[in-house]
Sequence to fold (751 residues):
Amino acid sequence: MKPFLILLALCTAAFTQTPLTIEAITGQGGLTGRPPEAFQWSPDGSRLSFVQRDDTGEHGELWSIDAATGQKSVLVTEVTLSRLAPPLSKIQDEREKERLTRYGVAAYQWAPDSQHILFDSHGQLWLFRLDNGTAVQFTSSPDPSSDPKFSPDGKFVSFIREHSLVVEVVDGLKEGGMSMHKKRDKHETVDDQNNILNGEVDWVYEEELGVRSNQFWSPDSRKIAFLQMDEAPVPTYPITDWTPTHPRVEKEKYPKVGDPNPTVRLGVVDAGNGKVKWITPFPESDAPNVYLPRFGWVNASVVWAQVLSRRQDQIDLYFIDVNTGRTRKVLGESSDAWINVNDDFRILKSGANGPSRFLWTSWRDGHTHIYLYSFNPTDPFSADAKLERQLTQGDFEVLSVNGVAEEPADGASTVSFIATTDDSRQQHVFAVHLDASGLHQVVAGSGSERAEFADDGKHFASAVSSALHPSFWSMCSIEGICKQFWQPRSLVNYGLTTPTRLDFKAEDGTPLEGWLMLPANATGKIPLLVYVYGGPAGQTAADSWEGFIGLFHQYLVQHGFAVFTVDNRGTPNRGKKFMAASKGQFGAVELRDQLSSLNTVLTQYPQLDKDRMAIWGWSNGGSMTLYAMTHSQVFRAGISVAPVTDQRNYDTIYSERYLGLLPEAAKAYDDTSEPKRAADLHGSLLLVHGTSDDNVHFQNTMQMIDALVKAGKQFNLMLYPNKTHGISGPAAQAHLLHAIENHITRELKVP
Fold:
């Protein structure tokens, strides 16, 4: 190519580059387009279904993909889907909208015959026939239904309504089945009745233990094991809608540190007559001091249940005979840190005399790995479970067990799981045989992978992303053969900056991982924004797509800022020692790692302006921002979004897991209380909160405001009426990002 043509090409490329805007980043569908959602596998493993909507989210269709061929087809058209699964925009309640999104609540379920689909249309159930495309309304009560489940034989559907477990006959297609209510005493009030949740999940179990359902059918479709929760002793928190003339107050059951938790008991109900047998594997007197986070069926007459101590340092696995009530603890595990509750427990189907083995994950060797146990299938109560072998081992973390493909020969049976690689910034699907041989990454590649596995463990939907590339979705087999079925819109014209990966050392020599983005062609000293999370629930330096926050950082880089982040000790996916550094304290170790890494970056990149630095974060990152601004003087400005300002304000399960129980851990809670350090605030603070946040209560920011005022400290405040923890919606998020940009532009004196 001639020189002038090269110059013309370069000029044209520069001229056609599209600048990022906050409105485009936060707009409906964003820059990348709305990805597929609501993935479900047909029970026979032949088809994967998902909802594909347009950018607005208003129009969508239910699609399916043939697992064998990868071919796509429409299962339910837009006209029908709009009635059976209306978009979330139709829900006016912000809290309910965020709950459905945050916890991935399914809008539909496949029937066991793989020929029918049960839709949950915002509380009303519809049964859809695939062969003729007709739908029949299954419920008609004005009270909404939730968590519908087919019995294994497909003849019944159970669901929750008005805190009660209801069972309906599918053939009748009309209501009138069994409803299991708590028997009410003549002196009991309606409020007392509303405290009893039968098969329903309360807020704290859903948020902190990842519980998504508390009712499960027996394999023979005759019984349902369910958890009953009594929230009567749990205090309430008032969530107020301030926008109408007469504010509306909604009371949320929320146990804060030291408060009573809901008391629980495990029952089995006969699906035919509604009779309940209570099979709780611990004395009633222990109920306030334990959690029952997981349970299910071993076979048609035996239930398994996990019991977790309130300190969360001991978990026990029980087998319970539902006919006789006989109970045995078959496995116990303790930790000097805490137990990570997950969904990795799997009863394997194979065995000469029925189910006789299960998978268990543990931190016991310093990393989370998979272990295979066996038990006597003819008498599960005769002995403790026996450890057969450790299936995975090494310097990596198993993040989740996702699928099991069982074959007649054990050596051919495969366990699929997501794990970190030798680079903990990445994660992928791996597989290993039940004899512990053949450990390998299923699909080669870099970045971070998520997966939705079929029940038979032989196929999965794979989503792979990286720091610069949103998720690409593919249909894959466990042999590693994939066919892509959705890709995001290209971002190549936006001139995104590739983060520079950086490695650091903590004071004890522990490796730390981070990244830095510098603006192109910058002259003079560059202002720096530090992005922090810093807690046990997430990484910021992972090689994965960060959505609108990642694009916002790209926007700031294009406007002259450098952006830096590092994952300090106390963050996940690096093993027990790394994560448990936060045990008994929040803030001190994390801030030391942040500041030591920051000092290294300032030395390595002298163009960064150490006198013009800001810090920001959301949730735990908001807490870390406040901690950094009250325990150091290096930041000229900070933005704290939805922070926990005092761990006593947060829920029992989360805070007590890491800091301990009151009163013995009082000092740990005092040391993390930001209102107590308000007089030490250094730098210009922007404090942000949604007034209807049911996760990190607005109370946290109110206490901080009160302390700052009393300490004579000036600060900036931005409240979002009726918004929850995610401050969702294009208008609110655009407003928030502009507020952050304006704050750091003003305080760091950027033109």
